[in-house]
């Protein structure tokens, strides 16, 4: 019996483990190399348009020259600012609307609850791309083009996935808290705000992370809804840069622009790695 | 008969409170989901002047060679990426699951591409996979004695290179999903099998893979749907043209070109028709997902019951 438990925790290195480590390390290298090259190249001042042969991974002429070019010739600062504002707005609004809706569907008792739930969840079934045209017309009609609100509104109104997430989480929270709140005479909203919301920390963090990444990296919608370049987001700026004919051939400048576009999320990532991994895992757990 | 009116009134007032709190998602769903779906369907039957022309747009679309090409491209790139991505992610997840130490380090490293957008990746990969013999990709090829390729610029390799790019970006995500699924398999199953004399390979085939059925289906279907919606990756590489030679032209690019293009003539009716087509394609796949996962619950239950009986 004693031997059974020690068999599970083999301390000696098995040959299969060596294979696993080698394979995973190769995979990790393949993943990391492009990102490392991007950062290294961005700090390298190139003399010509040609790529150095063999590829360089340490800057031969370290400088922030490329970054100067980016900031002088492109509205990169504006793009970063716009995207940051949009991301913060979206996260705040999404967290509150999704948590409130999830709470209602979880703790509320009202006729037609299941029907309404299905109605809201139907948002998940329809791809945004299929609704692109009418949504654009509507946003234009509301005069919200070239507007931060216009960028986040469609996503905000169709965040069924987040609502579903919160509902699942709320289902695991005890109903007694709700009863207690009712006895004390609190309104439904107060029960949400003062009892359940503080308990929703983990799921809200998950939603926040997923939303930040989604909003920051979105290309299609911002590109469609913004006509004034000063309001563009980082991704649209990158896309314009990448498909224009002038500077995209310069590896250093492209790398600098890419590094800048990744930097804010990278910082979030560094501090919240564990939560990011959990968020990804959580999206699959619902199945 | 007791007067039930006051109770009904109370229930009604109670319900109104909930409806009020839910007003934002409900209105949002109606305005941004239900209405657009119907409007797109209606638009697909109108011509450019807004006159009703029935299924003419669909006829035009289905006989448009460019539409055919967009569907072929989308399906080809989708199938290729799914066929490589999922088995690879599963194998890596299994290896990761069996590591005695260092799981977290690898998890974080593999998921790093998540912080990039597909636009950033495309820009980056245009250099890494540049036709230039000095690009990293061609340099690596030279280690194996293979001549440099044109990657994105060559009609024969452009789609495969895009698929490579997509795999690089998404593999970490899928590995984490599979890992989470693997960790939900109860260890009692493995112990029971070991007692019955099953070796590692048998355990893998008869416990691991069947238990992962739900996760497999989930990953497979979300990957398929994401592949059908492919826009940013090809747009960032080739712009509206879907070059080279239209090989990177996808369905969404077709819709985009017909509705927002500044270079080509627009036709909202055809764009709407394509949107409806895409909608039903994704709907069918989602329904298949639902049907398949419903059945799998019974299979898992049977496995557990069988083992308990032993």
Helix and strand arrangement:
The complex is a heterodimer of chains A (about 290) and B (about 300).
Chain A: H1 2-8, H2 15-42, H3 65-73, H4 76-107, H5 113-125, H6 132-141, H7 148-157, H8 160-171, H9 176-183, H10 188-196, H11 201-217, H12 220-225, H13 234-243, H14 251-285
Chain B: H1 5-21, H2 23-43, H3 56-62, H4 65-97, H5 103-111, H6 118-128, H7 136-143, H8 158-182, H9 187-195, H10 200-211, H11 213-228, H12 232-238, H13 251-260, H14 268-309
Please supply descriptive tags for the structure shown above:
heterodimer, A: 287 residues, mainly alpha, MetI-like fold, 2 domains, 14 helices, globular, disordered N terminus, B: 310 residues
Please, could you describe this protein's structure?
By secondary structure, chain A is mainly α. Chain A has 2 domains: 2-68, no CATH class; 75-244, Orthogonal Bundle (MetI-like fold). Helices cover 72% and strands 0% of the residues of chain A. Chain A contains 14 helices and no strands. The longest helix of chain A is centred in the C-terminal third of the chain and has 35 residues, at 251-285. In chain A, 44% of the residues are buried. Residues 1-6 of chain A have low confidence and may be disordered. Chain B is built from 14 helices and no strands. The mean pLDDT of chain B is 82. Chain B is mainly α and 310 residues long. Chain B is 73% helix and 0% strand. Chain B folds into 2 domains: 5-43, no CATH class; 56-309, MetI-like (MetI-like fold, Orthogonal Bundle), CATH 1.10.3720. The chains are: A mainly alpha (287), B mainly alpha (310). Chains A and B meet through helix 2, helix 4, helix 5, helix 6 and helix 7 of A and helix 1, helix 2, helix 4, helix 5 and helix 6 of B.
């Amino acid at each position: 019996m004693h031997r059974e438990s020690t068999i599970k925790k083999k301390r000696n290195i098995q040959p299969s483990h060596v294979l696993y480590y080698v394979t995973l390390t190769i995979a990790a290298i393949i993943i990391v190399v492009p990102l490392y090259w991007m950062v290294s190249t961005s700090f390298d001042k190139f003399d010509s348009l040609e790529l150095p042969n063999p590829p360089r991974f340490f800057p031969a002429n370290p400088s922030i020259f490329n970054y100067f070019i980016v900031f002088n010739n492109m509205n990169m600062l504006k793009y970063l600012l716009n995207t940051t504002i949009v991301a913060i707005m979206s996260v705040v609004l999404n967290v509150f609307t999704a948590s409130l809706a999830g709470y209602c569907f979880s703790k509320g008792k009202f006729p037609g609850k299941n029907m309404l739930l299905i109605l809201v969840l139907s948002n998940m079934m329809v791809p945004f791309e299929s609704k692109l045209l009418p949504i654009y017309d509507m946003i234009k009609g509301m005069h919200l083009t070239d507007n931060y609100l216009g960028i986040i509104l469609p996503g905000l109104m169709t965040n069924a996935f987040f609502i579903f997430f919160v509902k699942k989480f709320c289902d695991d929270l005890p109903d007694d808290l709700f009863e207690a709140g009712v006895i004390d005479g609190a309104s439904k909203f107060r029960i949400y705000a003062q009892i359940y919301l503080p308990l929703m920390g983990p799921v809200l963090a998950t939603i926040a992370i997923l939303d930040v990444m989604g909003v920051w990296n979105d290309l299609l919608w911002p590109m469609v809804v913004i006509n004034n370049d000063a309001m563009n987001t980082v991704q649209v700026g990158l896309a314009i840069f990448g498909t224009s004919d002038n500077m995209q051939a310069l590896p250093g400048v492209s790398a600098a622009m890419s590094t800048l576009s990744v930097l804010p999320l990278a910082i979030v990532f560094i501090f919240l790695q564990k939560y990011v991994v959990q968020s990804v895992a959580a999206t699959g757990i619902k199945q | 008969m007791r007067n039930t009116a006051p109770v009904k009134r109370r229930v009604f007032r109670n319900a109104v409170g909930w409806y009020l709190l839910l007003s934002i998602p409900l209105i949002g769903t109606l305005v941004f989901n239900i209405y657009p779906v119907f409007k797109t369907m209606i638009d697909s039957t109108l011509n450019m002047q807004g006159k009703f022309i029935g299924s003419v747009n669909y006829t035009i679309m289905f006989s448009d060679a460019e539409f055919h090409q967009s569907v072929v491209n989308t399906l080809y790139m989708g199938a290729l990426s799914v066929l490589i991505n999922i088995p690879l992610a599963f194998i890596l997840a299994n290896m990761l699951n069996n590591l005695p130490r260092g799981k977290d380090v690898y998890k974080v490293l593999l998921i790093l591409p998540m912080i990039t957008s597909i636009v950033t990746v495309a820009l980056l990969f245009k250099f890494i996979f540049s036709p230039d013999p000095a690009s990293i990709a061609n340099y690596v090829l030279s280690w194996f004695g293979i001549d440099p390729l044109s990657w994105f610029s060559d009609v024969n390799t452009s789609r495969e290179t895009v698929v490579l790019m997509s795999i690089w970006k998404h593999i970490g995500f899928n590995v984490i999903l599979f890992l989470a699924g693997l960790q939900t398999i109860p260890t009692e199953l493995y112990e029971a099998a070991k007692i019955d004399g099953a070796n590692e390979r048998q355990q893998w085939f008869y416990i691991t893979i069947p238990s992962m059925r739900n996760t497999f289906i989930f990953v497979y279907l979300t990957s398929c749907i994401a592949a059908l919606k492919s826009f940013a990756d090809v747009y960032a590489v080739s712009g509206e043209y879907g070059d080279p030679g239209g090989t990177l032209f996808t369905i969404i690019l077709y819709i985009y070109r017909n509705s927002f293009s500044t270079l080509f003539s627009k036709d909202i009716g055809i764009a709407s028709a394509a949107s409806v087509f895409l909608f039903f394609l994704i709907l069918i796949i989602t329904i298949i997902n639902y049907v398949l996962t419903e059945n799998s619950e019974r299979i898992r239950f049977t496995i557990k019951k069988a083992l308990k009986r032993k």
